[in-house]
Amino acid sequence: MDANGFERLLVQLRTFTPRAEIVLEEVPAPQKLATYAFAFSVDVSNGKIGDEEDELASGRFVLLHEPGGQESWEGEFRCVTFVRADVDSAMAQDPLLPEFGWGWFLSAL
């Protein structure tokens, strides 16, 4: 994919409309990891307004593209995500949490 193709991809990402309780904001992407990069921050609330609003999670999504690929990526693209959310102590101690969390993430895509 060339620069024009990546720009067309970014047009699609920038026009994405999430659910009302999700706020996406384009943020500066890392500059030295790939020739092309795009990033946005994500804030997820409970969907309520005013004093009852509560942030449930936040994170960052980064899309990297290196024409010709990078060996460690095994391809031309790399998607990097970071998610932060409150969990109760029982869930935090569950050894299967990472596996289930990854499954929830993939299902949401």
What is the total domain count?
A: 1
- Helical content (DSSP H or I, runs of 4+): 25-40%
Indicate the low-confidence ranges by residue numbers. none
Task: Give the number of DSSP strands.
Answer: 4
Task: State the major sheet.
Answer: 4 strands, antiparallel
Average pLDDT: 87
User: What is the count of DSSP helices, taking H or I runs of 4+ residues?
Assistant: 3
Q: Tell me the Rg in angstroms.
A: 17 Å
* H/E series: HEEEEHH
Shape: globular
Query: Structural class from helices and strands?
Result: alpha+beta
Main β-sheet, spatial strand arrangement: 1-2-3-4
Percent of residues in beta strands: 35-45%
Distance between the termini: 22 Å
Please characterize this protein's 3D structure.
The model has no long low-confidence stretch (mean pLDDT 87). By secondary structure, the chain is an alpha+beta fold. Strands 1-2-3-4 form a four-stranded antiparallel sheet, covered by helices on one side. It contains three helices and four strands; from the N terminus they run αββββαα. It has one domain (3-108). The protein has helices spanning 3-14, 89-92, 97-108, and strands at 22-27, 36-45, 55-70, 75-85. The chain is globular and about 45 Å long.
Could you provide a short overview of the structure?
Helices cover 26% and strands 39% of the residues. The protein is of the alpha+beta class.
List the helices and strands and how they pair.
Layout: H1 3-14, E1 22-27, E2 36-45, E3 55-70, E4 75-85, H2 89-92, H3 97-108
Antiparallel strand pairs: 1-2, 2-3, 3-4
